[in-house]
Amino acid sequence: MKSRGVKVAVMTAAIVAMCPTISANAAPGPTPAPATMLGSIDDGPGSFSVYRTVDSGQRPTDADNAACNDYFGSPRSLTVVERLDARMYTFTNDPSTGFLQNPTAQNVGPIYVCDGPIVDGQALLDQWGALTAPGLGELSMYGPCGLEFMIGSPGRAAVDCVLRVNPNDSGVTDGVATSNSIANPLRLPDGRTGSLWTLYTLGDGIAPVPEPVAGTPQPTGSVKYSVGREVNSVSTGSTPSCPGGVRTTEIHAVSVDAATGAASTEPSADVAATASICYQNPSSPDFGASLSITSYGVTPALTATSTGQCRRTDLPIEPGTVQQSCGFTLPPQPALGLTGGQVTLNGLVPTNDAAGSANSAIWTTSFLGSITPR
Questions:
Q1: 86-119 pLDDT, tens digit each
Q2: Secretion signal: which residues (predicted)?
Q3: Which residue in 92, 145, 229, 255 is deepest, having the highest Cβ count within 10 Å?
């Protein structure tokens, strides 16, 4: 969950100072988390699925709107500001950079979300959603969303949500869904509202997996999404400016299954991006963080810095482990053709180490503007 307003952290040499230097006689530095090393990457007790979603352009069904109203109750249902009918797609992406090449390759199911105002930590929206995913079945989900208007893209906003997934009759017992959404509520030119959704679900889904239906190109505009997984993630410990610790990591491209959206546990050997996150002390409901990320999927390589928010969700998983999601809005870089963007990550961490990695988190990045993946 990112902080509100336009809050861009200019991280200079202080980022470097976060990480201890090693002299010839110093003790060895921190080693990568085993769960993030190539050849051993594991989802943990659950499983990751990633979907590209696009506003269908259709009115939501009466049944979806009624379920939304039931969630918000009366009179809060009168304050709902968005009711969105969309479609979910599996996609193909570049095996080296992670950028989507065919964002709507296979049409795999419907998704509906509705939003109302809320004050919950740094969150401004309360979202309820429902989707039908192959293998997972019908799911409902609820939780807070951050909202930040993009100064380089008038009429658009970066929205990141952290939603608890309800159990269903198809084997899903719990989970957390996160979104990297570029909202276009007025349906201005340059693409409808769309997202990358990352689902981390517990339980063994037993819902049918239909034969995928070929998708058709959708008006997704200038947004370019990439999907990756943490590789060689290192927690370098607490510093005075980063009391929650510092995480450094590589991000490697990862593909999804065409029929189910399940994320592969075999990322590319190529480094698509590198990142460093400075965490503040974890607190309830959310806590601050600062990001520096360099993407090698564009030419020249692009480095962006941002402040954001993270949120934790207790799941029935191994003792001492918690689900943690973060979101960061990227500032414009006109010289590079970047008008804005967003970075989100969804993974498991040790309860006592916000910068640690208990599995290989899924990272999603959105770039808007004329910037072009290589």
A1: 999 999 999 999 999 999 999 999 999 999 998 7
A2: 1-26
A3: 229
